[in-house]
Amino acid sequence: MFFVDTLELAGLGNRSYLAGGPDTAVAVDPPRDIDRVIALAARRGVRIAYVAETHIHNDYVSGGWELARVTGARYLVPAGASVSFPHTPVADGDVVCVDEAGGLAGASGASGASGASGAFGASGAEEARGASRADAAVALRAVATPGHTPHHLSYVLTVGGRATAAFTGGSLLIGTVGRPDLVEPRLTEPLARAQHASAHRLAEELDDAVRVLPTHGFGSFCSATRSEGDATTIGAERTANTALTQDEDTFVAELLAGLDDVPAYYAHMGPANAAGPAPVDLTPPAPADAAEIAARLAAGEWVVDLRGRVAFAAGHVVGSFNFEAEGKIATYLAWLIPWGTPVTLLADSPRRLADAQRELVRVGIDRPAAAATGDPGGWVRAGERLGSFPLATFADLAEARKERDDVVVLDVRRASERAGAHIEGSAHVPLHELHGRHGEVPDGEVWVHCGSGMRAAIGASLLAAAGRAVVVVDDGFDADALARAGLPVHAGHTCGRA
């Protein structure tokens, strides 16, 4: 009689959900490319009657406003959020009957841009009818869970009046909580304390068997700490989540001490979501020939090669940057690029190009300036040569350091990762800072490493475009293995994401 479907946004480490009954459904925290949600609803044979946001997102552009417009759904937004588009403000305790006509339990059906929950005046009889519908149907109950943002709501999914799942957004995640430092520095500690209280409220009000369905926490930088696992329940979180196992002061101190770097593009996501994002255009970009690619590079624009690092290292357009389509392209390209810089995409197939284009619109990189597909030999003008550089292992690095004195080891991991262990004598510039700091890298042949090879390839391509001789260490960083290979490792403490 009811369902909950998950839409994975693996590149961003997020999830969206479609849930409902036999006829109608609600989309929770939908992605910008709403065609996926619409297709899922069509396969289910249900109408999307509601779109619900748990909060104004800081890590991706929401598709909520457009999905509500296209489907005619009621757009539910936390009452405390400041937005500039028509919506239905939702406050703590409000109930939505998802699987039948009607709105918030006790609501008059009013909808507007005001954030005041008082927009829902209703008579006692109307309230009773709304409560009755909620008890008999698939419904959502809003629960105020501030912490990730001041206005954050979770939505408890009830079936026949019984709670079965909780859409917790950026509140209670798997083993952790959403980070509290994305709103305003002065609010970080108060929001961390609010996260602790919100987690306890959910645990106190919900049974152990209730499923916890967060939006963040599957690799998202909106997660306060690394989140492990794919599914959880309130009962599991009672024993595993530090928000529920630690006292408030200990939890807050450890949470604040473990916060990692914030991707630069997050600064643009909140304002875009508050304004009401525009529809996306996923039609193929204008094709670029070799002359146009060269002209765009000469103009200082970014030309991004989406192929894997092995293929890129073997041959690429000189000056282009390597962001693998199979990696976290949206996160890292949006993090590194000067915001608003035109992007030309190079791919080995139209499918890879289309997939990358879809990933990028989710973080506000809406239209590539141009694109080319095929073989890199067709991306350069006649007589021009492709660039290349070697790939190596940490064992190769150890041998090179023994034989030569011009080897520069560059660690492009984040500071939190480097604190766990690093190669003695290595230089350190986090990848997200490298484009503006490549001049600080010491002279010599630069052997670039990260935790696995993907970020090292990005960093090496940035340096190669600046004229440096580079080698990509395409290898997993393991302190014990490095020591066995003959690389001296300084061990510290482990924190942050891998």
N- to C-terminal distance: 41 Å
The number of helices is 17
Can you give the helix content as a percent range? 25-40%
Largest sheet, described in full? 6 strands, mixed
Which structural class do you get from the secondary structure elements?
Answer: alpha/beta
Mean pLDDT: 91
Runs in which pLDDT lies below 50 for 5 or more consecutive residues are: 101-131, 494-498
Give the number of DSSP strands. 22
β-strand amount: 15-25%
What's the alpha carbon Rg, rounded to whole Å? 25 Å
What strand line-up does the widest sheet have? 1-2-3-4-5-6
The dominant shape is globular
Quick structural overview:
With 498 residues, the chain is α/β, with parallel strands linked by helices.
Q: Can you characterise this structure?
A:
The structure is a single chain. The chain has 17 helices and 22 strands. It has 498 residues and is of the alpha/beta class. A 6-stranded mixed beta sheet has the order 1-2-3-4-5-6, with helices on one face. α1 links the parallel β3 and β4.
